[in-house]
Specification:
It comes from Nonomuraea indica. By secondary structure, the protein is mostly helical. The chain is 67% helix and 0% strand. α2 crosses α3 (62-82). The longest helix is centred in the middle third of the chain and has 22 residues, at 31-52.
Amino acid sequence: MIGAIVSAIVIGAIIGALARLIVPGKQNMSIGLTLVVGIVAALIGTLIGSMLGLTNTRGIDWLLHILQLALAVVGVLLVTRMRPGKAGGTGATRP
């Protein structure tokens, strides 16, 4: 149980950081928010991947990690677009 939590945090941090590198422009996201986006993307990606049979492979599950990364990129885009007053956000403009 503890190993699964630690691996989710580590994989989530890596996936979140990679997603921020892939998304063009500046993202005003904290490290904690990046970690949350990465962990959520990793968990949702694992759920979708297990339904598609992507987790039953030998060695490294490359397709699963690509799916998780794609979900993290979408998550970073959603978070940066939804935050008002931040770079890239669609919220209220400042005078």
